[in-house]
Design a protein that fits this description.
The chain is 50% helix and 18% strand. It is globular, with a radius of gyration of 34 Å. It has 23 helices and 25 strands. Strands 1, 2, 3, 4, 5, 6, 7, 8, 9, 10, 11, 12, 13 and 14 form a 14-stranded mixed sheet that branches. The protein has a 6-stranded mixed beta barrel with strand order 17-18-23-20-22-21. Keywords: Cell membrane, Membrane, Transmembrane, Transmembrane helix.
Length: 789
Amino acid sequence: MFFIHYIKVAARILFRNKLISGINLLSLSAGIAAVLLIALYIQSENQYDTFHKKGDRIFRAGFTFWEQGKVYDREIPDFSPLFGPDAKAELSGIEDFCRMAGSGERYIGYGDRSFKTEGMHYADSSFFNLFSFRLLEGHPSSALKAPNTIVLDKTTAVKLFGDIQKAVGKTVLLNGKKDFLVTGVIEDAPSNTDIRYTALLSFSTLSSDPDAFMSWRGGYRYTTYLLLNKPENAAALEKELPAFMWRHINKSDASDGSKTEASLQPLKDIHLKFNYNSETLSRNLTIFSSVAILILIIACVNYINFSTAQSFTRIKEIGIRRVLGADKNHLSFRWLTESAITTCMAFAIALILILSLAPVFTRLTGKELSIAGELFNGKLLLIAGIVFIVISAGAGAYLSFYLRKVTIRNTLTATAISGKKGSTGKTLIVLQFIISIALITCTFIIYEQVSFIKSHPTGIDRENVVLVPLAGNNKQDDLTSRIKQDVLNLSFVKTASAVSEIPASGITMNGFLAEGQSQSMMIHQLDADEDLLKTFGLKLNSGDWFSKALRTKEDGYVINETLAKQLGWQNAVGKIIERDGPHRVIGVVKDFNFTSLHDRIEPLIITNKPWGGYQYLAVRYTSNPSLLIKQIKSIWESNSDLPFDYWFLDAEFDSMYKSEQQFTRLLIGFSVLSIVLSLSGVFGLVSLSIQKRIKEIGVRKVLGASVADIVRLTSSGFFALIALASLIAIPLSAYLVNKWLQDFAYRMELQWWMFGLAGAVVLLVTLLTISARVIKAALTNPVEVLRNE
């Protein structure tokens, strides 16, 4: 009964001042919605691979590589294919293992249907014993056992056969060359897993592949997952790994100063701790968590300030209740109850906002979040409960403490309790502006850094280059030369080059022994034909480049400046580098970035002898790309039965910074929200201030004050608070952005105006916000407000 009475009183107070109550509720609702949306995003990132029934016993093997006493790769999952079977045979506590290896881009076909897929992986038959991916068709124990068998995901099976039940028993063709028997159909990989696939090829197929290098010194492209008997066996197993690695590889490498360390990576921790982008992702999640807390603080400050500022209208109510016998504890319970009711209403509005903004949030994050389902997840409900308690109890307790100081004198004169001339309220306003200015500054600088790395010269001319994959080609084929020659004859083509990898998202590393060095070293290797320089706009510093006229030098190497400097070669031309025999350095190419600007340029060797064939044809054109694509497609279809595909080099570079762009968009959105919430608080407080001073404004107008005078009088206090907030926010922002920029090897130069800009923007927008409200009051006819005096 009392609760219903409190609800009625709370509703009556809310409707007494619809504008202020509306701002208060919307501000609080927006803050809650932002916190819950960020919590949804963070929760989704923390749920990767948590659905596997044996997940607590699954560990991925990680490897740290040492060379000449220095680490050059840490916690890398790719290693020898023999690590898994030998570890199971020799070490204790291992129940099973599963190896996986990417197969690169493949074209898969059945009948007249054929398309490219990038998610094919070789996998041991134990795959379904370790992981909990559902096999929709086929038998888990035999699906990947025999060589040349394949398990398709549901989407691929439907594309090829129309129905998953028609897939098993059919034979598909990969790259137009090799037949694989379909033995199963697996569910599509869920969004919350790092084990992505479109199809799984039996690992036993590799035993007959001469290029698979299935030894301890084989190609380091195999990922091994270990299933332990018990999760607690992991610590004991890791103690056995050093001796195991010494027996199999480190003993023979000791003379070269090389060493490989093995470790275990818990499956549930891989996404946020051990992937190549885990450090960046974890840092971004920390930033978003901080932003969520800051936005909630701004919303709570608004709520407290609004409630406190409105308290003067309730002084007489408090006095009457005190006279009628209500004690301070009774009144405190009333404020806490009203705060809880208001917070409940804000949560209801926040829920509507979340469901309405779900599509926008999905586009910003690039993640398919099941908002409706996740909202009732236990962890999210716990977060929501904590937020509810913090807001309702915190704000209610503050207001209760504030109003408990009301005296009989206050009730008779209808004056509010200011307490040190409103210092607490001003402190909260300064806190709001500090958060807003810091967020705006950090967001602006992050946006500028992302723009900087996208436009920063990389040493490669990225414009007007189209890339055509040459899947299925090998060194015995003449497909590349036929297509390249036909493409060069097109009127819009300037030049073209065949390459083993695209120099944008990274290049493979191999071991080389350089002249004057006693130990081999890992160096990036790019295979390219004689037209690479012209196609990518590279510059040769010294020596020669590959050409058909220099057949005597086709076994030579071209190195980049970084490698020459690292080896201490003042004149590199003529030096010898060994890999499968001696190779003479014929030239030095000017440094260019072949990975993202997070990393500095590393040593590179360019060869004219592709292993396994060129994989891409890069075509530099002059104009009319749409017509050019049609012409290249026609050439492709006349030379190959495989589907035609293409993309542009500048888009390839841009895709490297996709995560940074998504992060920036999210941060911009939440920064805008923070400043809107702060300004709504200012607007509400100004409105309440004008409401209390409306007669004073009328008197001042009668005495000759102008509208500008009244605006200056009302707003000057806020400007001083913004100036103070800026002085605190600027060094805080400088510290935060410098920490963030440390992740980039190449970063823009910070300027003083970047930090002052946010304060100026907040000052200007605050002036406009205040002026809009004050001018309306100042233009009111004084007679209207003074006639009752």
